[in-house]
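S.,

Sequence below, as promised.
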Amino acid sequence: MLKNSFLAFVFLLAQLFSVQFLFAQKKKNKEKNKKETVIEEQRSQQKEQLSFDQAEYLFSEGMKHFILEDYKKALILFEESDRLKPNNHATAFKLADTYFKLENYTEAEIFAKKALNINDQNPYYHLLLADIYERNKDYKSLATTLEKLVEVKPSEEYYFDLASAYLYLPDLDKAIDAYNQSEEKFGLSEMVIRQKQRIYLKQGKIEEALVEGKKLIENFPGEIRFIASQAQLLLANDKTDEAALLLEKVLAQNPEDEETRLTLARVYKVQGKHEKADEMILTAFASPLVDVNQKIEILQIYQQEAIKENNTDKVKKLAGILVETHPNSSTALSIYGDFLMYDQKRKEAREHFLAALKIDGNAFDTWQKVLNIDWELQEYEAVIDHAEDAQEYFPNQPRLYFFAGLGYVMKKDYDTAKDMLETGRMYANTPQLIAQFDAQLGDVFHYLEDFEKSDEHYEKALAIDPDNIQVLNNYAYYLSIRKENIDKALKMGKKLMEKAPENPTYLDTYGWILYADGQYKEALKYLEKAALNSDDGTIAEHYGDVLYRTGDKEKALIQWKKALDAGGSENEDVLKKKIASGDLIE
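The prediction came back faster than expected:
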């Protein structure tokens, strides 16, 4: 019995030790597992920190490339940074910005929205998204984005952008609201007022626009320009009397304000108070303080009226004052030159045009006026000089070479004329102008006795303009002189008679073609008619030749003498021999 009890006690004791051992082992294992978990967490944290550090490094490197505008390399680095640290709003923003720079607006929008989802309080994120929508012309989304932007960071500039977005939609009322909000928060702004006025005027709300103008006058009583602009607005909307009262008030306070004086003069003119208007304009024109361009604008209005009424005295006086007051204004000098031209004072006009060109040589119209005067005055040396001066400013302008070429033709310097005309023809950009060059080159090559090229250019001119009467005349006449292709010359001569049957020059040409063809009696009809209507020496000589051929030698001698007295014979020595011998010398 005692033995059994002992055995039971030993067994119980063994079991107790076994439980304690198991408990100790379990505790040990638990502590071990806990330790391993801590280590794992530490490793994970270390790994995550390493990723974050690497992401920051990549972001920093990306910024370097972004600053250097190497956007493709920057994009790769930002993308990898975003992969390692996916919820970084700064990285998302730079990705959006980079895609924007690369003009990939779809991806730019995705990342801009991502940046805002993470942090919607950064105004720059809203601004970038707004830029993206603006590029895509998505004005509705642009307006929505800017609405959020002004909530995040109210500023006058952003309200202005918001209003602009509404104008794009267009939603003019909302644009006005945006400007009003800006005004409430940041005070009165001329720029905002002007924008509101433009919108109201577009909507036809004249009174509202005028109310805005009054705000500027009331808040800035010393600013004359606000009163002047209000007066202009009143004038533009047929509120002439109100405008006059406003301007008279300004002028009473500032009698030396010549700008207002000019504006008031315009108002008086509209009101029919012409004497008052003229008096004010004369005073303003004499002041060097008034902007010359404003004076020119008024002068041009007066100029149109004066030409209609055929009375330029008053406006010419204004132009003279303008030149005295602003001697360095090329436009003023040119306008005064126009008045002198109107009075047929060509030389004086040319002096003023040339003075204007010394100040500003880039006025092609003024060069043309000078060249036209030179040509009318038959001052061919001046034609050449001025055409070549103008070529320095307009080296590709064909008409300048045309004028120079004509000048050299008149001086009988045909080689230089040829060079000028050929150069100008290269720049000619219309068929009609090309035909004019070909017509002149036909003449020049005739004088140079290169008849093949002469005929070639005449043919080119007629291909463009078959009814060019100058070409028909010259081409036909020169063929008759050379006694070549008379049939062609006769056809062109008949065309001349159809177009200008009473013109002495063309009658002479056709008569001389008939003469060259041996049709003396027929030629006599045309040459007699030409001689009766002209004192030209060449025509008289031709008439004498045909009289001789038809047997009337006495009358022939009379015409030859008449030709010698008139001058202009193509060969004066031959003409003298005809007179001396009484015989025809071809």
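The chain has a mean pLDDT of 89.

Coffee later?
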